[in-house]
Amino acid sequence: MPNRTDPTDRTDHPHSPTSRRGLATAAVAFAFWITMAGTTAPTSLYPLYGADFGFSPITVTVIFAVYALGVVVGLLAFGRLSDQIGRRPVLVAATLLSVCAAGVFLVADDVAVLLVARVISGFSAALVTGAATAALTELLPQERGVRPATVALFANMGGLACGTLLAGILADLAPAPLRTPWIVMLGLAAIGLVGVAASRETAVHRSGFVLRFQPLRIPSEIRSDFLRSAMAAGAGFAVLGVLTAVTGLFLGTVLHRSSHTLTGLVVFIAFACTALGQLLVRRFRPGTALRAACLGLVLAAALIALAMAVASLAPLLVGAAVNGLATGVAISHGLGGITTRGNPQHRGASVSTFFAILYSMLAVPAIGVGVLIRATSLRPAGTIFSAAVALLALTVLSSLARDRRTAV
């Protein structure tokens, strides 16, 4: 009879199924994190690229928007790819694309190369999001203390938050500010690639590869709530997109602060609070979450407009935090409606449609702000944009109030 303290009986033995599952979970979560980190890393570096390559603010917004549009196309074309061929090959492809994007950024010497790198980044994000989320769901038992959705949330939003901050710190402290961040990103992505390549496949059923665009679907059974959630979350994503694209420009030209770390910090706060907002939604009573999100978006828009008007950093930081919290609440409310009240047969298409709307809102307003900056200047463009965000949030809020009166 074996001794009860025999190390070979422990469930965390290096070769035990539990240990292997833990390593696979860590590998998938890290690959998810570094892939998303690579998509926001350029944010802190845009002022340097602008100075080196001699392009205007509108070019910065176009470079950023190309990434978001790449994500939309990738979601629609390959959103179900991991269901068809398995999680592992899609994760390997996504992380490999992240490595390639870092490599292209590393050798970039003009705007065209930056655009290519951003498209590759967009496809990497589109591939990793669904595959990693599904793999984590299959790797983490539901009865465990840590929920798969929470791990996926922090890998996703944590990567978006950390990428820009890490790049900013490296650009300030390390030599070759346009090269060192990408050497580090490339190395981390290569580690992620090795990790997922060594992991086991988690998908039990695979349907086989069929290339076709996934049709957009707005669930008719929750149409009103879906559209309101998408509009509110889209307004928040629009702010995230503009912050990501022009924060460095605002800090450099208006506040005369050249710190790339500070640029990264603003975007870090915005995305970190978006993750926190998705967790806070559980604190709201049913029916109040979306109202609170809309009020938060209005407040955030006012704070960002104030930052533009008085050329102050403090309102920008608080506005980024409030916008992130409100956006996270709106996202979680929208996804909750799809998963609990939508038709299960069309759930995947509905989720893809929801995120396609959000990423479109991440891209298009950023280009619009770039055009406004060219026509006027940064500060009035920021004020006009803030007013448009507030108006969109107030429209959703008004619709909710109208429905409430009708119900009474």
Textual characterization of the structure:
- The chain is mainly alpha-helical.
- The protein folds into two domains: 19-202, Growth Hormone, Chain: A, CATH 1.20.1250; 214-408, Growth Hormone, Chain: A (Up-down Bundle), CATH 1.20.1250.
- It contains 14 helices and no strands.
- The chain has helices at 17-40, 46-53, 57-78, 81-85, 87-107, 111-139, 148-173, 180-198, 223-254, 260-280, 289-310, 313-341, 347-375, 378-407.
- It is globular.
Question: Which key phrases capture this entry?
Answer:
single chain, 408 residues, mainly alpha, Growth Hormone, Chain: A, 78% helix, globular, disordered N terminus
Task: Estimate percent helicity.
Answer: over 70%
Give the CATH class of the largest domain.
Mainly Alpha
Described by the principal axes of the CA atoms, the overall outline is globular
Q: Return the string of H and E elements.
A: HHHHHHHHHHHHHH
Question: How many distinct helices?
Answer: 14
Q: Which structural class fits the helix and strand makeup?
A: mainly alpha
Number of domains: 2
Rounded average pLDDT: 87
Tell me the CATH topology of the largest domain.
Growth Hormone, Chain: A
CATH superfamily label of the largest domain: MFS general substrate transporter like domains
